[in-house]
Design brief:
With 209 residues, the protein is α/β, with parallel strands linked by helices. Helix content is 38%, strand content 17%. The protein contains six helices and seven strands; from the N terminus they run αββαβαβαβαββα. Helix 1 crosses helix 2 and helix 5 packs across helix 6.
């Protein structure tokens, strides 16, 4: 938890120093207790951006390929969770559930990898963590991070450009039965996708993106 707070402070400095985040609805994130932030993913800065603007320290599930060289001890030190996306990574699952059991905030990219960032296809992992822990899900839309032609550095959005981060209302993924069967998780995934898609559409209307 302490490491994630350090990561949040670093994120604040970097994100507000390099870009112009506009944050909407951060008050919707519960002030205490376990929470899952479900973030759309179209750019590399989406995770650091949410870490920097979220009202609470966040532990993101991050692909193991990002933990290379000096980034390995750095990401681990700021409380991020390394995950192997190509197998059932029981160590990562245990660590992620541990974050929630301790009343922390877990950040997840439901799409599993960068794409259009439209929640068109989400994996069952989010439903598993939500149903297993009972933690509410807060949908988060990051808009404007994909940049535009002519940016100075191709791997980044234009410096000092505006990036909108919109937090939605928390919701429960389960149906109240406590079931953790495959069918129950599939049903929860469908409910989650519907909620996330609706939030993204609303965020686009609010921001004009």
């Amino acid at each position: 938890m302490r490491g994630a707070e350090v990561g949040r402070r670093i994120g604040v400095g970097l994100m507000y120093g390099l870009w112009k985040p506009r944050v909407l609805g951060s008050w919707r994130v519960p002030a205490s207790g376990p929470v899952i932030l479900a973030v759309n993913h179209s750019h590399n800065i989406d995770g650091p951006m949410v870490m920097g603007v979220a009202p609470r320290p966040t532990h993101f599930l991050i692909k193991k390929e990002a933990f290379v060289g000096p980034l390995d001890p750095f990401l681990t030190g700021i409380g991020q969770v390394k995950v192997d996306r190509h197998s059932t990574d029981r160590t990562a699952i245990a660590r992620a559930l541990g974050v929630l059991e301790q009343g922390g905030v877990l950040g997840i990219f439901p799409e599993g990898t960068r794409g259009e960032g439209d929640f068109a296809s989400i994996r069952a992992g989010l439903a598993y963590f939500a149903v297993r822990s009972g933690a509410p899900i807060v949908p988060v839309a990051v808009l404007g991070s994909s940049g535009r032609p002519g940016r100075l550095i191709k791997a980044l959005p234009p410096l000092r450009s505006r990036v909108d981060v919109v937090f939605g209302d928390p919701f429960d993924a389960g149906d109240g039965s406590g079931r953790r069967t495959r069918k129950a998780l599939d049903e929860a995934t469908a409910r989650i996708q519907k909620q996330l898609t609706a939030h993204l559409e609303n965020a686009r209307r609010l921001t004009g993106r």
